[in-house]
Amino acid sequence: METVATSKGQVVIPSKIRRKLGIEEGTYIQIDLDEINKRIILTPITREYVHSLRGKYKGKGLMKALMAEKKREKEY
């Protein structure tokens, strides 16, 4: 499937793909760039996607790091 970019850089995701991926109005979409292969990767942030991340970073200390970063931001 193909789509065309507007003058503002907007593109339309075809309805067939939106339905398949559960993309609805207001769905956040993560945009990544694969510079090596020159590709744009769009990942819809749906409930299923968030659930798939559960436990992935367990034991990495990310929450402590996030809290420390937030504390530093408040100090400035």
Describe this structure in words.
Helix content is 36%, strand content 18%. It is an alpha+beta fold and 76 residues long. The chain has one domain. A hairpin with a 4-residue loop joins strand 1 and strand 2. 0% of the residues are buried.
Annotation keywords:
76 residues, 36% helix
Proportion of strand residues: 15-25%
Structural class: alpha+beta
Q: How many domains comprise the coordinates?
A: 1
Major sheet description: 2 strands, antiparallel
Helix share, percent: 25-40%
Distance between the termini: 48 Å
- The radius of gyration over CA amounts to 17 Å
Give the integer mean of the pLDDT values: 86
Low-confidence stretches: none
* Global shape: extended
Number of separate strands = 2
Count up the helices.
Answer: 3
- Order of H and E elements: HEEHH
Strand order in the largest sheet? 1-2
Brief overview, please?
This protein is 36% helix and 18% strand. The protein is an alpha+beta fold.
SSE layout:
Layout lengths: L14 H7 L6 E7 L4 E7 L1 H6 L9 H14 L1
Antiparallel strand pairs: 1-2
